[in-house]
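A common beginner's mistake is to predict each chain separately and then try to dock the pieces by hand. The better habit, illustrated here, is to supply every component at once so that their relative placement is modeled jointly.
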Amino acid sequence: VSRVNASVARPWAGLDALVEPLAPGPGGEGVEAFLSRTLAPGAYAAPFAPARLEALRGLSEALLAHPLLGRDPATTAVAFWMRPAAIAKLRASFDARVPSAAGTVIVPVGRVFHLAPANVDTMFVYSWALSFLCGNANVVRLSRERGAVVEAILEVLRGTARSHPLIADENRFVTYEHDAEVTTALSAWCSHRVIWGGDEAVATIRPLPLPSHASERVFGSKFSYSVFAAPAYAAASDAQRQQLASAFFNDMFWFDQMACSSPHLLFWVGDAAATTAAVGAFEEALEAEIVRRRFVTQAASAVHRRAYAFELAADADVRVRLGHPGFVGIEVRDERGLERTICGGGLLRHARLDRIEEVAGYAIESDQTVTHFGFAADALTALAPALGARGVDRLVPVGEALAFDPVWDGFDLFADFTRRIRVKPA
Amino acid sequence: VISPARERLDQPPFSQPQAEKRAWLTTAVGALTRHHYAHSSTYRDVVDRVFGGLDAVDFSCLEGLPFLPVSLFKTHALKSVPDSDVLKVLTSSGTTGQAVSRVFVDAETSQVQSAVLIRVAQQFLGRDRLPMVVLDHEDVLRDRASYSARGAGILGMLQFGRQPFYALRPDMSLDLDGLQAYLERARGQRVLLFGFTWMVWQHFAEALAARGARLDLPQGVLVHSGGWKKLVDLQVGPERFRERLREVTGIPSVINFYGMVEQVGSIYFEDELHHLHAPVFSEVIVRDPVTLAPLPDGEPGLIQVVSSLPVSYPGHSLLTEDLGVVRGADLPGTSLCGRSFDILGRVPRAELRGCSDTFVAAPA
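With all components supplied together, the output reads:
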């Protein structure tokens, strides 16, 4: 017997028993009532309306003031991203997408159902905030397995919602057991569904039906890497090297190196001698940065990455360095060492290339971010079409791998969260 | 190829003081390192690629020798003999979906494993084969596919007992009437009982207590092995475990042991001080889980097990995922020479998911 009747237009009778509201609750209107209310055709909600900017400003301040979150770099990043100055830049880029004279009016897509990933704590905030800015009602599904950071963010959201009623009116952050019927019922409500969560989540959720007028965006599993110019590294000062190590630390160690954009491989472009010297110096600088930040490896991560390193050494011509307490460094000397298996937890593979163009030969469709160091803008611009045609979505400087961008995996989330109404006078 | 462990089969396995034992074992395991390097291409690759080749290895101490993580036996077929010499392939336990270890054993390794196991076990159990109660059900021996490690553990212990009685029914309930009848027939003799730690607790000690039954086994010896995790969850430590068994059975001698399918024969029994004890044939080293630096006695860390036995597979030096601590060597209070140590649990599986456990202190 189905717990949720999917045959009627509003198949969410019974959802309140299956869905746990996390924010803005507790109390008040249940999920079923929320879905029914927000389904009704509403008044036009202007993207970037002042009340939305105010709500995000309040959220940003509350996140930074939180004793735990204020020290969490990833949360700090999302909080800075929601500050008025940053939102103003976002708005400029939004406005630039459609020149106002072109006879186009932008309206919210309406109702967005976000399925957040379990591996990147803060991703749900970015996805939700962009959609909220665009004027949509939102249901955000979070994993049952939530760490301390996500719980604290939800706590802050509940508090902020009390002073910003728009958050409570238009949004529900919920969780439920993996249950296709619940996902189907929530999907019946939405006009856009976005699945953040890797191949497995996409494969499970994508087959579940959507209303005929709804659109969908899915983000499958991705692999990311870096490309460094060995001569540029050789020429860099100690201060520049330390700065680079610090930026790379963020890219590599946030989210346990398990985000789609976390680098796993580092291609060095240069001759063998320069590369060997650079690899050694870079690993030393990275270890020094780990010590400076007092970053402590968990025993479980150390065991995990060591097991991966030995497995790779049994299969591929590599040189493994177990001597760094903060990470495992591996020099790759044949193709088999370049496989796209993700270790995470602090493992970095190095490989050497003669020319930057060879990176394009490696790229495939499931690749996402390439972070770079030491290349001129024109070299990168020249590389981008070849790299992009094969799959890579972003070329960004080291340190910005995890920086959120409304263009994600090559798709414009602003476009996803809005509709364009063409207006043509007679 | 002859296993170096044979050189010590004629001596009592706990008679050599630690320094002497170390000197011999270092030579023996160093020789095994060269042997496996010459005969297993995968081992050679790993030693070259992770440890910088044999030239970079410090053969002067056990801590300087290369090691493999025990997990590598789950992903790779590690062999130092031609396929035609493989007598049997041992496999580890594994819950559904988990990879299992595969251990390739030839005739020489198998013989040495048995010989060493018998010599070490006799030190604790005596030379006579005793009437034996298996605290499990007999079906685990038939259903080899799903219970290979449990079955193999029982088969290994059966050689120290005779006329085994299986005290559990297939539904894990205790056959108390059958057990009491068996013990009646063995009255006046020493009796050996064997089971896995968790099952001894749950399906024997607690089952007896639940029925208000009490056995009278002042000559019993209970040997048990396996993880403590479930007992730790119940806040039952080794002392409580022994005490409980004394309450419900009167058994004075409860002996834990530690071993793994990747080093069959290299087995560690609990000594008079209730620590696990390394015989001459093998050694435990405790390392920092992250830096791998060998740790001094008393400091907990990751357990490495070193064995002079295996010639058919490179399992002579393995980094386990168990946590433990060395208590000392040739300790007063035990008649046995060699290292005493405790197992403290297992490194939790890496849950690489989010940043919640990786807060970074902002540098000043």
